[in-house]
Amino acid sequence: MSFQYIEPSGLIDRRGGADRMDWKVSQWISPWDGKEEMEAGIVGVPLSRSSISPSAASEAPDAIRSSWRSFTPYDADHDVDLSPMRVRDVGNIRMHTTDIPRCHQNILRGMGELYERTAVYPRFLPLIVGGDHSITSPSVQAFARHHAGKAIGLIQFDTHFDVRNLEDGGPSNGTPIRGLLESGVVQGGHVFQIGIHSFANVLAYRDYVKEQGITFYTMHQVRKEGLSRILSDVLHTLNRSVDLIYVTVDLDVLDLASLPGSPGPSPGGMVSWELFEAVYRLGKEEKVRALDLVCLDPFRDVGMLSVKTAAHVLLSFLSGYKVRLDGGK
Amino acid sequence: MSFQYIEPSGLIDRRGGADRMDWKVSQWISPWDGKEEMEAGIVGVPLSRSSISPSAASEAPDAIRSSWRSFTPYDADHDVDLSPMRVRDVGNIRMHTTDIPRCHQNILRGMGELYERTAVYPRFLPLIVGGDHSITSPSVQAFARHHAGKAIGLIQFDTHFDVRNLEDGGPSNGTPIRGLLESGVVQGGHVFQIGIHSFANVLAYRDYVKEQGITFYTMHQVRKEGLSRILSDVLHTLNRSVDLIYVTVDLDVLDLASLPGSPGPSPGGMVSWELFEAVYRLGKEEKVRALDLVCLDPFRDVGMLSVKTAAHVLLSFLSGYKVRLDGGK
Amino acid sequence: MSFQYIEPSGLIDRRGGADRMDWKVSQWISPWDGKEEMEAGIVGVPLSRSSISPSAASEAPDAIRSSWRSFTPYDADHDVDLSPMRVRDVGNIRMHTTDIPRCHQNILRGMGELYERTAVYPRFLPLIVGGDHSITSPSVQAFARHHAGKAIGLIQFDTHFDVRNLEDGGPSNGTPIRGLLESGVVQGGHVFQIGIHSFANVLAYRDYVKEQGITFYTMHQVRKEGLSRILSDVLHTLNRSVDLIYVTVDLDVLDLASLPGSPGPSPGGMVSWELFEAVYRLGKEEKVRALDLVCLDPFRDVGMLSVKTAAHVLLSFLSGYKVRLDGGK
Amino acid sequence: MSFQYIEPSGLIDRRGGADRMDWKVSQWISPWDGKEEMEAGIVGVPLSRSSISPSAASEAPDAIRSSWRSFTPYDADHDVDLSPMRVRDVGNIRMHTTDIPRCHQNILRGMGELYERTAVYPRFLPLIVGGDHSITSPSVQAFARHHAGKAIGLIQFDTHFDVRNLEDGGPSNGTPIRGLLESGVVQGGHVFQIGIHSFANVLAYRDYVKEQGITFYTMHQVRKEGLSRILSDVLHTLNRSVDLIYVTVDLDVLDLASLPGSPGPSPGGMVSWELFEAVYRLGKEEKVRALDLVCLDPFRDVGMLSVKTAAHVLLSFLSGYKVRLDGGK
Amino acid sequence: MSFQYIEPSGLIDRRGGADRMDWKVSQWISPWDGKEEMEAGIVGVPLSRSSISPSAASEAPDAIRSSWRSFTPYDADHDVDLSPMRVRDVGNIRMHTTDIPRCHQNILRGMGELYERTAVYPRFLPLIVGGDHSITSPSVQAFARHHAGKAIGLIQFDTHFDVRNLEDGGPSNGTPIRGLLESGVVQGGHVFQIGIHSFANVLAYRDYVKEQGITFYTMHQVRKEGLSRILSDVLHTLNRSVDLIYVTVDLDVLDLASLPGSPGPSPGGMVSWELFEAVYRLGKEEKVRALDLVCLDPFRDVGMLSVKTAAHVLLSFLSGYKVRLDGGK
Amino acid sequence: MSFQYIEPSGLIDRRGGADRMDWKVSQWISPWDGKEEMEAGIVGVPLSRSSISPSAASEAPDAIRSSWRSFTPYDADHDVDLSPMRVRDVGNIRMHTTDIPRCHQNILRGMGELYERTAVYPRFLPLIVGGDHSITSPSVQAFARHHAGKAIGLIQFDTHFDVRNLEDGGPSNGTPIRGLLESGVVQGGHVFQIGIHSFANVLAYRDYVKEQGITFYTMHQVRKEGLSRILSDVLHTLNRSVDLIYVTVDLDVLDLASLPGSPGPSPGGMVSWELFEAVYRLGKEEKVRALDLVCLDPFRDVGMLSVKTAAHVLLSFLSGYKVRLDGGK
Q1: CB atoms < 10 A from the CB of C122, how many?
Q2: pLDDT tens digit string along D262-313?
Q3: Any idea what the CATH number is for the domain that residue A63 is in?
Q4: Which residues of A fall in the annotated binding site for Mn(2+)?
Q5: Quick check: is B101 in a domain?
Q6: Residue A59 lies in a domain
Q7: What is the three-class DSSP state of F95?
Q8: ipTM
Q9: What is the pTM of this model?
Q10: C33 is a domain residue
């Protein structure tokens, strides 16, 4: 963010005494010029006026961008260096100030355009940063349209079922899964929800979820069986039943102490490193072709805790993806 | 809290675009009218001027009440719907502004009146929300008087022994267990303390606790043996030696990162979901007949982290209790 | 908020050692039953998804309600006791989760119903609590419809002109005045804006405001000439040119240090007591018949500073109104 | 606070690169050894469990002590160097954990002992740091006993009248003036209250204040007439009617934006520098012989804003007192 | 900060539903390309490891840059539109991580280069954003070298004298004025300090300041005489005695309630709008040729209060400068 | 901190109603008088201007000192009473305001003096409280000089490798290990780093670390293998290859949710109680002869979470050391 002009003497420039070998994500993920081939592109979807409770998730894409300078591209935990991968910042989908249906249309069409433009890049994969969870409905629709004829699986990390009826409040952050089921974009049997938690959902929607054939895992199950084993089961099933997988991460799946910056999280939620390991693993999965990250509200954050956690989720996923690209592990 | 009047058109009312199937704890736990039969009643005890260090725990009952709208009555983790259970808000015990002994008398007598009034409800169980830990002494006394002739067991989640001598400072949040032992209301052999932690207690009181025959488990033991196994041991013993069990939860047993809103918590404490599981299990136990929750100081909270955690403790206990009422699991 | 049930002994009740003569606004402003005559009614309009920048102003009505217990109804500064005046809480206008135009329609119709229902009360006056500033457009329209044939004057306390074009973003908190001018509900010559501040507006809209014949006073003028004298000029003009006056207070007119809880305020703004004195005076004015208060975002507040300041604005206005009712001063 | 041991080489010591001419209040105000003559002594009274609403004012004395290192003893505004004056820290009055009446007794007796011990110092003056406002009642009583036979005047900076009845809640921070009137220690005609503010008092107590002959000035009067002129009037009257003046400063007289750290302040209160100038002037007054400062709650502070403001009040008073000692201005 | 790529459809771009006439400072102040003529250039000096107390003032330049999107370039208070003026962001002076003398050398040389490069622009004026106050010493030296042979006047807004001796701690934020006097760059008689405040300075340095012939005005004088009249006096003298004026603004001159984000501010300081008016006026002065702004610590800020206040200072100065360029007022 | 003078009556003193058996660390760890034999001494090193990113770690020693009153000396978790051990506060190493190399020299020489002075105490062990991590380089050098001829092992808890090159920025908190390797004070084969985490290091330095023969364990390994087993491996190796072990704890090894108060921590880090157990165990190790604790920035803390966690680390280490002194376990 600092800037650009460098005097011949080098006395005026943008770095403040930095180390020549130091290398930040902010230096690595540069804006996309609309032409360069890329393996992954970050797309911001700054919509949160569709949130049931007040949310500044519209500020999440810029908050995450500004956090890049706190991270390096080397994943010491898995010994993966992201640097050689071309990850670019595609920018934000344009939103309207007061017309929420038009915002959702823009997501559908904007993502569609992006898929078209990047269709020539053999291994392109989008990282979509919300916004609230309402964006997942048009985002998955655009994904499904682009991959027409393919069966789409959905892996959802979430405290909530997100299957509220659409009649009462329209498409909000409480309805994305319902919207996708009702429009036939995904089938209930291809939806796997992980992290569903107590006192955050109503029985009526648990019933709906069951009727639709959705498989869900509560936090209690995550504690008892381990997220790793649950993921194995999910992937085992999905890899046999669908062609492509879309991963949607509602950050409220995390424990409130680790993620204060969201309208939704509750005490007793998932621990950060469990989620990091999970998305790292999903990054390695061949059929996983898109990830979105929603409901990060930077205005509710404490320090930069939630924003950095969200950024770490994206990087962990990219780390797994890098392993996949390298044909490895 | 919003309100009441509804125009015939429905345009003016208290809900803001809510979903018709959505159902919050704030809609479920209504005030008690003094007559309706209930399975559980929430009683506030807004006393914290008896706290050794400054505490706004007197504000905890109202803080928890205002958090009900953030929770639903369905416990997805254990697949228990609380809605059919009649849980009512009995109100607060009246406190005096400057006369602490009179406050403790009011608790003793107020709880006594409540036990009398509710004696006709076969399965009534009180959830007492402090206030600081000094309230546990008169509260258990009222419980013991009501159940005269029965041996009372005490399960205490706490970082501290709470057995300070009564001569130096009178009955404060550092003395409740001492008060109960000295008055003969409970015997040391029937007291089980879980979560005792390093650098939060003095040796002299460890000695006292041992002399009195109290059994205690440190956080180190909780880490090593697991809370589940410890609880099994405690219940195995208590179920054979006492008639009724009173559970007292000092929230400072939780890790400081998960519960900033208390004068007492320290780093390295219990994790939220461990406590949730523990009280859920205790809710199922036939002999458990009362629970109190103390030392939540909403003024020290970070966001709503501590208040929501406290509310989750109450709901988790109710969830176990619902299973008990259903004769189940 | 605490509650209701009182044991015969009085030991369980809702007051915590209070003084019998103490008397809070929370005890004075009770919910309206739909029938009782009232001199003033508080209406919440919990809409802020129409805000350009993220805003939790939808939470303002409940935040102000919960602050009533921090205030008494006696205005010592002006020696006015509000207690005898019947001020009631009418509740909130019902909002839709995602359909902003329908929300604005609900305001128009809901306020219309309220004006009809209260038409029989000779001196009824509404205090409308937003929400963001977009609510002022339908609110003034309902006011104008109810007082059809009367010329309406508008006194606006605001850092901004609020005359953005409606084509680009639809009716948001940046457009209310434009909306009212374009729909012919008020004339530019009857609009007076006080507190317009540097680096918060663009030249293009200053030009529009001038073309429309709006009179505006910058903070620089407020400092130089004094708010009292400016108000005298405004009232002198308006009292001769209009029949009724609607006052709209955008809290961002206040200095950022006094009002952190709003998306809009800037350093160098109005000081709290200047605004209190101004609305007190407007309360006394015979032609002033409605007041709204907008853009209070409780999520951005520091402590309760902004919420209490907003509540004080409402009470100060009521204080002036009480003097008017008493035919006084 | 750092410490003491200095190696011969000077490499280990308590200063971190400080300037040899720099000189902090923490180096100037040292603990009293019980013998040294002093012109002023700071006494902490760490009692706030007598506060109506929860308060950590008991932590104020230590908070102010720890802020001394942020201040120097030179008052550039009035060109007064406090350094030559012997101001010592006398320590805290011992409080009881749960027996509030005994705390008040300790204040009465402890201050009595201090007055006796310091009676030999011709110009000794105490600066009493609360604690909540309940401490003023025993403190003024001790003052009056020590100066038996002298008429005592009281100048009170406060948002509230503090004359609640003593029957309902006993001696709390809402009752100190009532307590002093009822016990005949001061007469109503000798009490002057400055800063009384709207929506913070009830009419019934305004009536009581008037009946007792107390003179009060509202914030509205402070704004209109200026604090300087009001003080002149007060001093003109008091200097003719009493022998000695006790000044009590309830920090809630200040605007909430300038003093968040108190249970009581409201928007529209006094500005910091008005209060600084006022106490500076009172420091110069021959008859002023004691000052207390109450209701600073460091737990509600934002940064160190309130604590530093409170410390500045004490230093400003000492600055005026230094001028008095120098026989000057 | 958002970004760049725009799909032909316009669906992906950097604006989120903005108004076409809306125009932010972030869109107006663009990076300098090293060639374009400019009237003013913003230079960041991210050095604060030279601060006596810990400071993150090194983050101030980027914090102010990120706040530009909250401001428009139209100064409604003075009816000045800044848009036509070419103000560019020159970037940051390069700092060293641990070598403070080299940092100061870089400032001296870097500013020297900038003055050389911009010497061809007839009316170029730098706005230097620190960093802590130590940067003013090399910055004024570079200014003086560039304008060799000219008498330089210094107008300093500050709570402190900043004339600590250089022997004890080297050149820190407590020494800049001393450094300039001792090196003969400016004469004491040409230095004017405004806002010097009580309990923030020691007597020894007051004496030094007097010996050097510096003129200083305390906050008490600012309150009594008004900042406007003081500035008139200062300018009257300086305009006759020097050729050029350098303005240095230490933000700690502001009241702690208005500027929490600095290591230095104290209660009772200057009010924001007083400072805005003062720098606006100085912007208009023909001899004023540089301004620096120091000691803004974004890590201590509350919300964005201090950062926005600092940005407003810069914009207010530019507003006066625009009037000067227009030959006006 | 409160103070000292006690009236014969005991009414004025430093304790506020405390319990006679209560006993705080603040009463136990008293200042060293320069003569008394001690088993452990706490040394503050208030240097953080050498930190790459802004840091107030210079305030950490005093922050930890002020937290002692929140802890008791009894470790209930391990049943160890620290009271009999003589632990003293040696004070701070003197720092220079702007000369960082001199600060490092002072550490080298100051620690050298301390080792000389305490050489007569057979079991003396220093606890060094930074400051940022740059202090470890001179501190280990002083340790090595004092123990000349002995092979020194280093156990480092850290998120980062801390082996940046020294050419680009000089000795900062990013270079201590590099400095020690390059100066030959320790050999790479004797350095063990635990807690290295993803996206916090660059590949180039991972390569350097490997070349130097350093052994490192990532957080991923800590999760998979357990810290206990890793420590066993490290100690098994070190106990056979070196004579003495120096432990350095960079608090940023902890999870950001548990330790907000540091410039470095990231999400997914170590949990507090893992670190407590680890240092407890190291305290018991015969060859461990010094510990430092760095990069605690109290200005970034949330409440006292980080400061209390840091204090708990020191106490846990002392607890293990007490067991060693007792020849036990």
Answers
A1: 8
A2: 998 899 999 999 999 999 999 999 999 999 999 999 999 999 999 999 999 9
A3: 3.40.800.10
A4: 133, 158, 160, 162, 250, 252
A5: yes
A6: yes
A7: coil
A8: 0.95
A9: 0.96
A10: yes
